Amino acid sequence: MTAAPVVRLPAPVSLRAGDGASVHVQNLTVKFGANTVLSDLTLDVAPGERVAVVGASGGGKTTLLRVLAGLTPHSAGQVQIRQASDTARVRVMFQEDRLLPWLGALDNVTLGLPRTERAFGLTALAGVGLADRADTYPHELSGGQRQRVALARALAHRPALLLLDEPFGALDALTRASMHTLLETLLDETGATTLLVTHDLDEALKLADRVILLRGGEVAEDVRPPAPRPRDRTALEPLRRHLEGQLL
Ligand SMILES: Nc1ncnc2c1ncn2[C@@H]1O[C@H](COP(=O)(O)OP(=O)(O)O)[C@@H](O)[C@H]1O
Ligand SMILES: [Mg+2]
Hints:
By secondary structure, the chain is an alpha/beta fold. It is 31% helix and 25% strand. The chain is built from 7 helices and 9 strands. The chain has helices at 61-68, 105-110, 118-127, 143-156, 173-190, 201-207, 233-247; strands spanning 22-32, 35-45, 50-55, 76-82, 90-93, 161-165, 193-197, 210-215, 218-223. The protein binds adenosine-5'-diphosphate and magnesium ion. Magnesium ion binds at residues 61-62.
């Protein structure tokens, strides 16, 4: 029997990615054939800000994220993503983990990064509590653990803009709650500007500095939850009811 590989933790390396990017979207229109999905949408996000994006299914939330990631071309308008120091790195995390099944956790995290970044990949994996699973394959991990690997992969690229598309939608309630706590800690550490698409209003109100609601292809609501984080549920109730009314 061979001994389990020893994982040596790197010296503490900060996950801090420098300043978060600023996002400037002006009069953005996206059409798929005759279907206008985003219409004259304007949105400014400050460096380090965390914005939750809510709205009905099919309302263009994923499309907005894909445009910001440069994955979907837009028909009209301007999109600028800026960072003070250099070209802003943008990373997307989707609802499904999109890990490569034939690679272990650490290889998934560091895929596309230079070899020199392996130690940092391990730091990211340690950040999501999975340093001891570096060699574990995705099929040997639970759904929640796979999403943590996917999150570590996004963070290992030191994004200045982190785009999360319903990242916890497929997880059970308990796992989701622990992912919320983890995400808050990691975002505090990295300082990345974050857009979080979610259908869960509680998640939006708990994690974000700002909640925008997309309707008719534009920003129909733009609200800021009152108290500083961590937030008390009762204090959020009026805002929650208001947004729920707008969603229905
Ligand atoms: N690549 C595409 N080609 C054609 N239509 C698309 C494409 N991507 C999205 N759509 C359409 O755009 C609309 C918005 O989709 P999406 O942005 O995924 O909404 P949401 O994420 O809010 O549920 C839907 O009607 C969807 O069918
Ligand atoms: Mg979507």
